[in-house]
Amino acid sequence: MARTKEFDPDAALQSALELFWRRGYEATSLTDLVEHLGIGRASIYATFGSKHELYLKAMDRYAETRDSALLAELSQPGPALPAVRAVVRRFAAEAASPEGRLNGCFVTNTAAELAPHDPAAARRVEISWEHIETLLHSALVRAQAQGELPEDRDPRALARMLFVLLQGVRIVGKASNDSARVRDAAEQALALLG
Predict the structure, then answer these.
(1) CATH no. for residue 166?
(2) Rg of the chain's alpha carbons, rounded to an integer?
(3) Is 38 within a domain?
(4) Per-residue pLDDT tens over the stretch 77-111
(5) Which residue range(s) make up the domain with 188?
(6) Number of domains in the chain
(7) What is the pTM for the complete model shown?
């Protein structure tokens, strides 16, 4: 007779996500995971597979949560440009916050740590980034159609510029004590929207 799990796999995945997010992949050992999750190695392997598979599942969880929240922000009815501005300012504020300095963005952290040599992680990073860029592009197309964005602006190029800015804000925010650096960059980018 098979034994039933004595832990909540969903809660364990969330806990693993938080540990990986705070420490990174390489700095998190399987022993760290056992201690942090409060479950045995065998249970981790049986439920999630290897440490790498658990990390990828944590990435998927993070992207699902963050990407759906961003979708909700950028696809609300009404004017689109205020939503884009709010997203950029929120990213800048988060990046400059104490928690942002501590953790950064899980996907951005993965891009820097694993993507250059880990195809599975790189694929997930690219999917998340494409999603963010697409959401920004859609909002800017809507803004242009509603007369909020001048006709001479290229929504695709602006979306890409904002996306790259957001990733840079996350890196600089994590490494710098100067929150004005992040805020000023975000405001200058927003000025390009008209």
Answers:
(1) 1.10.357.10
(2) 19
(3) no
(4) 999 999 999 999 999 999 988 887 888 899 999 99
(5) 59-192
(6) 1
(7) 0.89
